[in-house]
UniProtKB/TrEMBL annotation:
Residues 188-393 form the Tail specific protease domain. The keyword Signal applies. Coiled coil: none annotated. It comes from the Bacteria. This is S41 family peptidase. InterPro entries: ClpP/crotonase-like_dom_sf, PDZ_sf, Tail-specific_protease, Tricorn_C1. It comes from Hymenobacter volaticus. The keyword Secreted does not apply. Residues 1-23 form the signal peptide. The lineage of its organism: Bacteria, Pseudomonadati, Bacteroidota, Cytophagia, Cytophagales.
Length: 420
């Protein structure tokens, strides 16, 4: 019996051993080269937004390929791949592995969003409930330095080395990477407010962005006769469907509903999204258009599809407001443009994360590292690119941090809608 159990254990180990060894075995120079070639070719053939970029992807192969002879560890190879992928300056492209000192991902790993305005790095959004907000950072403040490095210098260090020219989009991504910081170094942000400089410490006493936890999949309450549901970054969790259904049933008698998607930075899946949207419609409708450029590039035949949403039991037919912001990402953006296209909701908020398309995951043959890149273009049904959607109703930014201007605007809109 003992020998039989041992043989079973050994058999199971043989099944799982290749994956384990993949993470531990030292790779040869030829294997690093093979992985890099696979990475470069896969991006070259499948990434669907090169036309929006100033990236010279052929130069990426030469520039980073020349560094391969010096790569002897997986940590070094990870950093090389991070830098190569950064040449796309695309927040929807990422590695599935990272180093302790890797940069936080945008937007899920940051709590502030900054844009250039008249040559200055100005805060346009602060993530509610996180370190940047608690430290006193507010929209309208100018960022002067990060960890005592002048912002111009900090940004220049993060710009790609293989860009034909540095466009506004590349500068904004680098700017926000600088503000996001790394997993290991606490941030010191120097800001200018009314002509005076202040130092803020978003990661003190602890780096909250490394340990984000939510008490539940969603939150809900009733604000007078208005219902409110906030999704806590769970659009990729299939358990949300049942939780959402039961919560919406409780709020069925309300005169209007606010669906808050401002804390959905990790995206999600279309099953959960369609389940949510299906509770707000009474007939099947298209909500999103897909295009597949790789197929057209390979065969010269254009392919596009419309994705449909089917109604579900107990539809909520009262007025609906979708509340969005900079941390409404990917699938959250899809739900937003879908409900907007179906004329089922009014969208209130600021620009969303503006992530490009739908991603596909790939895996390198030797290191086993995964990477994700946009391979499908996504549009609202009327062919507006999803990343270009901007809410028609925008609340005034909360520069004092004393109220939720977005929620107040959403509730006021519903109250006005319900007036006789």
């Amino acid at each position: 019996m003992i020998h039989t159990c041992w043989r079973l254990i050994c058999a199971l180990l043989l099944v799982f051993l290749p994956t384990t060894l993949l993470a531990q075995t030292k790779l040869t120079p030829a294997q690093y080269q093979q992985d890099f070639d696979y990475f470069w070719t896969t991006v070259n053939e499948n990434y669907c937004y090169f036309d929006k970029k100033q990236t010279d992807w052929a130069k990426v192969r030469t520039y980073y390929g020349a560094q391969l002879p010096g790569i002897t560890t997986k940590a070094q190879f990870t950093r090389l791949l991070e830098n190569a992928l950064n040449e796309l300056y695309d927040n929807h492209a990422s590695l599935s592995t990272n180093l302790p000192d890797s940069r936080r991902l945008l937007p899920s790993g940051t709590d502030v969003w900054v844009q250039y305005q008249q040559g200055k790095a100005v805060v346009v959004a602060v993530r509610a409930g996180y370190g940047a907000e608690r430290s006193g950072l507010r929209p309208g403040m100018e960022i002067v330095a990060v960890n005592d490095v002048p912002i111009v210098q900090a940004v220049s260090l993060l710009l790609g080395k293989c860009l034909k020219t540095v466009d506004e989009a590349a500068r904004e991504v680098a700017l926000n990477q600088a503000l996001a910081g790394t997993h290991t170094t606490p941030r010191k942000l120097t800001v200018r407010v009314q002509g005076k400089r202040r130092d803020l410490y978003p990661d003190a006493p602890t780096a909250q962005l490394e340990n984000i936890r939510y008490p539940r999949l969603l939150e809900s309450q009733q604000l007078g006769t208005i219902g409110y549901i906030k999704i806590n970054n769970s659009l990729g969790d299939n358990r949300l469907m049942a939780a959402f259904d039961s919560t919406l049933d409780v709020l069925a008698a309300t005169t209007g509903l606010v669906l808050d998607l401002r804390e959905t930075p990790n995206g999600g899946n279309t099953t959960v999204a369609r389940a949510i949207m299906g509770r707000f419609i009474t007939e099947e409708q298209p909500y999103q258009r897909h295009e597949f450029p790789a197929e057209e590039q390979q065969f010269g035949i254009k392919r596009s599809t419309l994705e449909l949403v089917s109604p579900r039991l107990r539809p909520y037919t009262r007025p609906l407001v979708v509340l969005v912001g900079r941390w409404t990402s990917s699938m959250g953006e899809g739900i937003t443009i879908g409900l907007d296209a179906m004329r089922r909701a009014t969208v209130v908020g600021t620009e969303m994360a503006r992530l490009n398309g739908a991603i596909t995951s790939f895996r390198l043959p030797n290191s086993g590292f995964g990477f994700n890149i946009p391979t499908e273009r996504l549009y609202r049904v009327d062919k507006l690119p999803r990343e270009n959607f901007v809410p028609a109703k925008r609340p005034n930014p909360d520069t004092e941090g004393t109220s939720d201007a977005g929620l107040a605007a959403a509730v006021q809109l519903l109250q006005n809608t319900n007036k006789p």
